User: Fold these one by one.
Assistant:
Number 1:
Amino acid sequence: MTTWIEIILFAFLLIISVMVVRLRNLLAAAMLTGLFSLLAAGLFTVLDAVDVAFTEAAVGAGFSTVLILSTLALTSTEARRKRPRLLPLVVVIATGAVLVYGTFDMPLYGSPDAVIHQRVLSGYVTKTEQEIGIPNIVTAVLASFRGYDTLGETTVIFTAGIGVLMLLARSKRQRLLRRIGRTRSAPSKRRPGGAA
Amino acid sequence: MRPTTTGTAHPAAKRRPVRMREKIIVRVTTKALIPFILLFALYVQVHGDYGPGGGFQAGVIFAAGLVLYGLVFGLRVLVRMAPINVIEVLMATGVLIYGGVGIGSLLMGGNFLDYGVFDKHDPVHGQHLGILLVEAGVGITVTASLLAMFYAFAGRRRR
């Protein structure tokens, strides 16, 4: 049963990616990328990776779609038609082939011979019970056992935010918004055109 | 934010941009949904020890709730509620909370980010406290960073 769900989800992922590539209307493509993320989240749920699925649904289907749409609002919603070129196609096919070749060395899904199942995982499972005392092992690993890594990740998000601010947030309109934020009065009802 | 009058929009929308908040269904649904979105984000934040989720997911959901508010009611209204300067300060605050927990554990005689030392009697309780604080730091930084990115994208004019 689970296998069938996976096959259907993978088939939809494939169809959607082909459609995203072929679509000229970028608005529809943005919506489809959101749908892609949602289906991927479903796939992660089937694979019992609930935390990853949660992140994928929130970030991929939710937030990045908003960011893509904001970008489209600034640029254009229609992709320019270009002559198909050979070199990018060759590069993409070669990279894909290398990636697929790489998966041959990976252990099968759920295989007990996988490295994580032999070395660290059993340690985490028993230690979470004894030392951390919380039911969600993923949170225990992220926040406590691998606290350094999560500190690094948080710093990466912070840095990404700073980078976007330095690149984009220097416009006149941004300064205007900044000023509005400082005045603490309630939005006036008399100016319906406030959002322009 | 600029009303979404894009190339594929209804022809009538081109003549006069219809603002999102003028559509009563969108407005009422958004107003009804946002409290639940924010509450769910807080639930995911503090319930990360027991179920799926944690600071990162909670931060994204919280930011998404605020962004929804901004999309429908306009960037100016959102900026009044969450001013850009405050958001920028919060971006750094989250990382500082996380790092501060690490420094705190150093000062109390443990290793960096070793939460066990926070409770002298039971290291497990110390772990609970440490994870709660650290996740709060993650949540604050993620919410603030995503909102700042949204402001940076949405606060620009079309060229």
Note: Chain B has a mean pLDDT of 86.
Number 2:
Amino acid sequence: MAGLEHKLDVLTSGADSLAGAGKRVEAEVQRFFGAEALRGVQSAASASGSGTIVFAADRLLVTFLGRSAAMAITRKLYSDPK
Amino acid sequence: MSTAPRNVRRLWMSLGALLTIGLAAYGHFVLTGSYDLLVLYFRNAGAAFFLCVTGAAAYFAYQVRSHFDATEPMRLTWTMVLLSGCCQFAGLACSQVLSMDIAWNPLVRLGALNAQRSRTLHDIGLILNSPVAMALLAVGLGRVLVLKRRLELVGRLTVKNRILVGAVLVFTADQLFELGRMLAFNRAAVNVTQVLLWFTDPLPAVLLIQAVSIRRLVINLGDGLVARCWWMMAAGVVFTSAGDAFMWAQNYGMIPRMLVPVGWFIWFFPVTAFASAPCYQLEAVRQAHEGSYSLRVSPEQPLAE
């Protein structure tokens, strides 16, 4: 969990990377949970402030896919920041 | 919307093939009025299908469970689904094969099957397959709903949902009332098996209420792989309830004789749905690991396919 949080910290360290990470995380949430779930995460994030979308999505991914799969997604996002 | 995972397609294609053969057997029954071909079909092809699909469901649930650490909350859910699958498999093995006088029953081949043993095995099978498996599944699904509520994902039930839940509760109360009357007036006729099987009536009601909640949740989520996993689980519960409702209607003489075998075919659907659900979760895990440098799962070592 600490590793995941560290990676997410790195991901969200700058404004550009934050926006990029947010978009990529949104794509992952839509793939695994669906468009409505994505809208839910987006509305939760907009209510709590920028950057929260990564953490809101992370909660979903870790809970329902497992820590290992969520870490794999994070690694993909980290290794391919485009 | 992406296509279904390969194992899901295989499961439903197998069911399609089985139903096609079953249709021929049913046609023979309609034309001749003889149950011979139908009985042959259900005791052999039907029983083999039940065993293979419930065995596959338990195996898939085991695979999904292995992707969650002991500290993760979904581990308990999948443990319950796995145990439920194992009970279904063991129950169907006892009630559909070991208690039956069929050529591929090992007890028949060994000459170890008599009427008493057959009845005992059949009762054990029914108990394992119905109340025990359902109770374990209810715990698993309940856990999912608790987790989704924690993540603020559970949607409100609509008026239609509430009416359905109300109808299910009234039906369950009626069943319990009937049981109470039977206990009050004819206690001597009640045995342990019957008492355990009584739980078969309220448990589908609990599962159906959970399925309605999960359906609302899935509508709220959309069309992702994880959502489809739980949609399929809810579909399995709905098919089980449809089978129970058909049996209830049959017991009250509401089903014409010609349509009675149709109710037997319903039971192929829930086992197929329960086996399909973990395939979606496995596909989601496979896609999560795809392209990552994860050691546990790589594209060369696909999980679900």
Note: Residues 295-305 of chain B have pLDDT under 50 and may be disordered.
